[in-house]
Automatic annotation (TrEMBL):
Domain (Thioredoxin): residue spans on this chain: 195-333
Pfam family, one: DUF4369
Protein name: Redoxin domain-containing protein
Amino acid sequence: MQPLEKKSTTQTYVLKGSINGDFDDFIKIRYEDQIDSVDVINNSFQFEGKVSSPKAFQFIFDSITSSEVFYLENDTLVFDIISDKVELDKEVFKDYGVRQLNGGKTQELQSYVNSLLKSTPKSKKNRTMLLNTMDSLIKIHPNHDYLGKLLSDLSMNQDLLYTDVRSLVSKMNVDELNPEDVAVLEQYQQKRRNYQIGSEIPSFELISLTSDPVLLKSEFSKLNLIVFWNSWCEDCISKQEQLLEAYRTYKAEGFEIIGVSVDTNQQDWIKAESQESFPWKSLRVKKGFTGEMASEMGILDLPQNYLVDKKGRIIEINLSLDELKTILSALLD
């Protein structure tokens, strides 16, 4: 059974914990547009209340310091907080470490999802599995802030494609979700809409190994796999090594691979290229992730790939090696 497959029957939340180190007499939490505070007594605190659905929240320690985001739900949530002091440029600042000891069903879900994503690299097959998983969870919890955050991340990292995310968003109560997550989701959905399957990638200007400007489409053949990577991404290099057999098999039939680096440093890219000596085209996005092609297409997570035809029309996105071979065999054999 997946976490959150059943709703909690608990009607209220108890958020409690202990604080070690120098601390004020009270502690605050912030969720939605609310701020709540309780006294710290004998290094312990306890909040009680009720939320209509799980909500993102943060501990607030002072006017400039807050914790990472956790999720408040009608359950018993237990935290351990350590207050310490750090010195930076001869100034002393307070530093806070927060550890969640028990987080109810949302913590279980986060562990489940993290394990799932780690074991399922980007592919068409895994997208279907992720889509079905998200669909089943959202049907039960359409207001859950963590699912909104997760959906935003899946769009941003392109683990799910534009149409997948759009179908899931239509089943959520977006007005009830964390506005910050919704804003990121909308930002990346706009990018995904512009570069979804069937769209045409324009002829972006990239940089060659000799620092010359090159138009992307000038390198196109009949079928082209655009592979986004950079020099410090070991998985990127490993995935490219796996492409060698397919490239040699289908190169003469009109298959081309174009490695597009998002390295900001030209020399880092050149060094990696000289070490690997991949036989296909190699170009770089000037300014890396903030450069025109990477920024417009919303490339953040690596590696990623786009299979396009000779006009730049997107045929598929983030294919596994086996999925790529199946398409090449169907179209080029």
